[in-house]
Amino acid sequence: MKQTVLLILLLLLCTNLVCAKSEYDPTIEKYQIGWSHLIPRQIKLQFAGSMGMFSTGPGWFYGRRNQWETDIFIGAIPRINGSKGHVTITLKQTYTPFHFQFNDRFSYEPLTTGIYLNKIFGEYFWSRLPEKYPKGYYFWAVNTRFHVFLGQAFTFRLGEETTGKKLSFFYEFNTNDLYLISAWSNKTIGLKDVIGLSFGLRYRVF
């Protein structure tokens, strides 16, 4: 009899604990919302831009008007004339101050701007001056570049039956720190020599 009573009491205690855990807990919800923000909400595919011939990677959009974007790219430089191919990694920050919404499906971003940091991996791209060069011969790292860019984007809202939200086409004009320093010190270098053009697609998901 005593064993039966103890078993019933134990079952009641376990039931109360389960019910308590299943009740609404604002702290748990807060953590869940925080972790959900870490999940990438978009992916980009980019051609050129000093990030490799092609580069792709996940990203996030945020802000009151979704005006901020942070993306991480992995890119590839193919083998050319027998040289080895290389892998690149890029951290990119984009700011879109405003956009025009023409209808339910189409919007236009007349200005996108930002910066990105790009690193190339490979034996021919070094971060420290090799010993074969005299000290001070090069003052910059060959494998790391800081870029600035300006561009535009055209966005199409996808149908409700798709798993995505928006698909965008964008293009950007970019340059980097080394190009700007070279153009400043060498007047024979023109604007077309320091400005690059890239194209890409942005796919936003829920």
Commentary on this structure:
- By secondary structure, the chain is of the alpha+beta class.
- The chain has 4 helices and 9 strands; from the N terminus they run ααββββββββααβ.
- Strands 1-2-3-4-6-7-8-9 form an 8-stranded antiparallel beta barrel.
- The protein is globular, with a radius of gyration of 26 Å.
Q: Descriptors for this entry?
A:
alpha+beta, 206 residues, 4 helices
In summary, what is this structure?
22% of the residues lie in helices and 44% in strands.
Strand order of the largest sheet: 1-2-3-4-6-7-8-9
Strand content: 35-45%
Assembly type of the chains comes to: single chain
Helix content: 10-25%
CATH topology of the largest domain: Porin
Mean pLDDT: 81
Query: What is the architecture of the largest domain at the second tier of CATH?
Result: Beta Barrel
Q: Would you report the number of β strands?
A: 9
Instruction: Give the end-to-end Cα distance, rounded to a whole number of Å.
Output: 57 Å
Biggest beta sheet attributes: 8 strands, antiparallel, barrel
CATH class category label of the largest domain: Mainly Beta
Task: Please provide the ordered H/E string of secondary-structure elements.
Answer: HHEEEEEEEEHHE
